[in-house]
Fold this protein.
Amino acid sequence: MKNTTLFLALFLFLPLFFFSQSPSAIPYQAIVRNTDCSVMANTALTLSFMIHDASALGTLVCEESQATSSNSQGLINVNVGSGNAPYRPQQQCRIHCVSRWLPFYQRNI
């Protein structure tokens, strides 16, 4: 009886310690290139991310921009969700469990 109670307690309460949370931002890494496919090394950039509902023409769910610069190999690292957001209603910006479309736009500073 004692072993059954211990097993039951472990079986019921152990999963409570294993809940995880999704990250608040999406890591994004890219190599930026010019129109002639040459690497844009050590270049200041402004990146714009717009999350649409289901397709590229879907309703705009979230929008943000981030200023960054590339390294000597043209590599950039940003976290989508932690930038300057002119449009991000929190109740609509839930991107998990649904189909979303994330186009990427780049501007040289």
Notes: Residues 24-108 form a domain with the Immunoglobulin-like fold (CATH 2.60.40). Residues 2-13 form the longest helix (12 residues).
